[in-house]
Amino acid sequence: xxxxxxxxxxxxxxxxxxxxxxxxxxxxxxxxxxxxxxxxxxxxxxxxxxxxxxxxxxxxxxx
Length: 63
What we know:
Blueprint: H1 2-5, H2 9-19, H3 22-25, H4 33-62
């Protein structure tokens, strides 16, 4: 089974070429799920407040 999992020299060269492309050389920051959740909550609250403001303005103008 170990023999079946090994890559040929051609496959290794293609993998090395793929990983050396500029896209894969960029250092990325660590994923921060807490920051993403806070931004998501802020966006939802902001849109909710905007919706309430618009509804208040529309209902106020009707009466």
